[in-house]
Design goal:
Number of domains: 3
Largest sheet: 4 strands, antiparallel
CATH class of the largest domain: Mainly Alpha
Distance between the termini: 57 Å
Low-confidence stretches: 159-193
Strand content: 5-15%
Helix content: 55-70%
Number of strands: 8
Strand order of the largest sheet: 1-2-4-3
Structural class: alpha+beta
Mean pLDDT: 87
Number of helices: 13
Radius of gyration: 31 Å
Shape: elongated
Order of helices and strands: EEHHHEEEHEHEHHEHHHHHH
């Protein structure tokens, strides 16, 4: 029977000392030896026919290393049964002592799921503001910008016209298109002035007329303003959750969040046609300096995430298997969809859906 000694340390680190008698380890040793001996080939013996004592002597420390790889994780799991320790990262093992025929002793350091305390989240007060009305100036600015880019694309002496009636049938916004279509003679300047946005240009953008294009642009701007306003509302709620959440943050969670923020930056930089190294040089910063500047925000993000998850627990917010599968079924990219056949991506998706549903619940509470 194994024995254990559990010592809880700051920042949710737990050190577990496990002692395993040889009688419990012997089976793992023999099974590993047989498996490795089956692939062993020595002079005078064909593959898999080497006598076990000779195979064991020949394998030496390799056999012990393989036994430890199997034994330590399994015995750690056994040692943690019945405790309140829930590891959130991969354990770090340290072999203390072992001789074949005698007991095995090792230490494992794990990061435990931190204890989270959230204040009275039902008393959170956040005022949702109305998005600012879209002005004629904003619409004109977008139209002018589209027109300038469209003019650059036109071949000398001709202009493109594309009529996209499908946008009118669906009623959807965002129908602006730069695809070339039927050609016709360009509008000629009058009174010596350069022609501005007109119906020809509007049709190339997927509208029926310049007036229709302005209506579509206005709808797009209004939808974007509404979307950003909703994001601001959600962010304000999450900021309040972070303020009332008390937790001792594990280093591993902070590092994970910093890496997530870094991946997000890399994508934005790539969209600009730059490498991250070039971007950092332009900013006069090293990667470590950047992560140091981000650390406080990363801590807030993790605290916010843990607080929201604890509210989900208190409110009994859950995602059923059917709801999870319904989200997976919405994925149209078959390669991406196939990834969700594994358990880990499904766990991440379930967590994200649970967090979203909890935030929706808070939005109703504070409204």
């Amino acid at each position: 029977m194994i024995t254990k000694n559990i010592v809880k340390q700051p920042k949710s680190i737990v050190e577990v000392t496990v002692t395993v008698p040889w009688t419990d380890l012997e089976k793992v040793w023999n099974e590993t030896l047989q498996k490795m001996a089956a692939d062993l080939e020595l002079p005078g013996f064909r593959k898999g026919a080497v006598p076990m004592p000779m195979a064991e002597q020949n394998l030496g420390s390799k056999l012990q290393d393989e036994v430890m790889k199997v034994a330590m994780p399994n015995f750690l799991i056994e040692a943690l049964k019945g405790t309140d320790i829930i590891p959130i990262d991969y354990p770090k093992y340290n072999l203390v002592s072992f001789i074949k025929g005698r007991e095995l002793q090792f230490k494992a350091a794990v990061t435990n799921r931190p204890e989270v305390k959230v204040g009275n989240y039902k008393a959170i007060k956040v005022t949702k503001t109305q998005p600012k009305p879209v002005t004629e100036e904003e619409v004109s600015r977008v139209i002018d910008d589209l027109y300038k880019r469209w003019k650059v694309r036109q071949p000398v002496g001709q202009s493109s016209v594309t009529s996209n009636q499908s946008s009118d049938k669906t009623g959807q916004t965002g129908s602006i298109s730069f695809q070339p279509g039927q050609q016709q003679a360009p509008t000629q300047p009058t009174n010596g002035q350069a022609a501005g946005p007109d119906d020809t240009f509007a049709k190339a953008m997927g509208a029926t007329s310049l007036a229709d294009l302005k209506t579509k642009v206005r709808k797009d701007l209004e939808a974007n303003a509404s979307y950003n306003n909703e994001l601001d509302f959600e962010e304000a709620i999450l900021q309040e959750v972070e303020k009332i959440t008390t937790v001792e943050l594990p280093d591993v969670l902070i590092e994970d969040e910093l890496n997530r923020m870094l991946v997000s930056l890399q994508r934005r930089v790539a969209d600009m046609g730059l490498l991250l190294e070039d971007y950092l040089k332009g900013q006069g910063k090293t990667l470590e300096q950047l992560k140091s500047e981000w650390k406080m925000q990363a801590e807030k993000n993790v605290r916010m995430e843990l607080g929201l998850a604890d509210i989900a627990r208190q409110e009994n917010v859950n995602i059923t298997d059917a709801e999870l599968q319904a989200e997976v079924d919405k994925i149209t990219d078959l390669r991406v969809k196939k990834q969700f056949e594994a358990q880990e991506p499904r766990l991440h998706l379930r967590h994200a859906l649970r967090q979203t549903r909890t935030l929706d619940l808070l939005k109703k509470m504070v409204a």
